[in-house]
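Table S2 (continued). Query chain:
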Amino acid sequence: MVTVKLRHLSFGLCGGRIGRTDESNIIGEQRQYDAELLIRLSEFLNLAVGNFRSREAMPANERIRSKLSKIPHKPGVYLMRDRFGTVIYVGKARVLRKRVSQYFHPSRRQGWDLKLAALIEAIEDFDVHIVKSEPEALLLEGKLIKEFKPRYNVSFRDDKNFLLIKVNLKDEIPRFTFTRVRQQDGAKYFGPFVSSGACRRTTTMLRKKFNLRGCRPLVPTKRDFKHCLYGHLQHCTAPCAGKVTLGEYRKQVAAACDFLEGQTGEWEKEIEAEMQKASADLDFEKAARCRDIIQDLRDTTRKTRKFSRIPTNLPGAIDIESDLKTLVEVLNLSVTPKRIEGFDISNISGTFMVASMVSFLNGKPDRSQYRRFRIKSVSEQNDFACMAETVKRRYTRLRNEGRAMPDLILIDGGKGQLSAARKELLQLGLGSLPTIGLAKEFEEIYQPGESSPIRLSFDSGGLKLLQRIRDEAHRFANSYNAELRLKKVSESILDELPGMGGARKVELLKKFGSVRRLRKATVDQIREVPGFGLKSAEKVKDFLASRYKK
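Corresponding output:
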């Protein structure tokens, strides 16, 4: 209604500007036109707001009134739904009952803007989920917004994640770094942290207190120490220069890990005593700094759940039982698909061809059963042949080992990929396994022997479950593909060096981390690597110089 009137209003006003030729007249007429437009637009918006506010502001149905009275006075998140059951807004609150009730309170309607008024008009139901603290509510709010993408939410709709602190204890000289992605690389992760500012400030103090290194090299050397600000300021014990042993430095790292896990009581007491002393000495600036440090410590080390996946107990968020029941009805399955296996192919122009298989048990990822494959029989880009090989290898092994088969197989693709998979299953005598394909373009579900696909509503829980499985298989395949490409890039140049064996190549990459850093290294630094003498170090240096000169 509002959009139509605005469009008509603008068309009517713009019509008076057509056909003007004199530039001076145009400027004067333009100013008059702009003023008239602003006045008339303001009047129209006031009228529209009045129409919204004149309507009943109390809950539209008895169900909402009843649910409002049962909301606890605790922190959590809430989801607003329209008459179709679609999530249109996700919010967080320190006190849920107070916050959600505000949407339906008549005394607050005078402060509504058009967006809020439209949101309230569309609300037909809502769900709430209780958490332990406000930071947890913020984490869950961001996860839910990325999941549902409500049309009335603006923030958290990108793919940005909260900050994490990472330390790999397997490194020769471990260091603490920041990241936003938790990987399966054997490293230790702390977080996520809601306040990135508090996290960064606390980490800076952590390095100073425990004398940890903050330099960038993967394995720092004496040469790096010469230009190290942390070492000269005595903020680092400099294990790279031999001022402490690696064992002593690892004890410092272990103490810092204990601190990040919440063992901060003694340090807080020291800072609090310092704050009290500064306050008694009337040094209020120092006291304020100590107060801020204590607050940062508490914000950083406060225990919060990670919410790496949507909580299954969230009302109305993900109803797995209902989603599986939908699949049974839509696909005409004889049993509920408890275990579903999804397949996807990843390659770049026929290179680094890999495949993935993910397994979902009762609608949840079962990562212990994930598998990845390097394509062996296909030499050029052919997704159909790659899918056929993957399915054959997977279920030949299950059959030979006498292991249980899945209740449903999901193929990422349309008719072609599905036909290739079904052909291999029939040859293995497994033609009775339910198999479907999910095409990305229109999210169509293909079944064997059916010419027309099944099209479910985009709000269907069954479709969303299939999408989660498909997207997880896609992510798993792409991560394997990226891993192989990175490995190839790192090793390809050294493979061209005559006499370079695998063990010595590994030692070089372990020492310098990359070929780029190896190029910057001196002959003496290369000689420090086990297995390299003066001649072999000079040979590596000359080879890289000639290789990059070309």
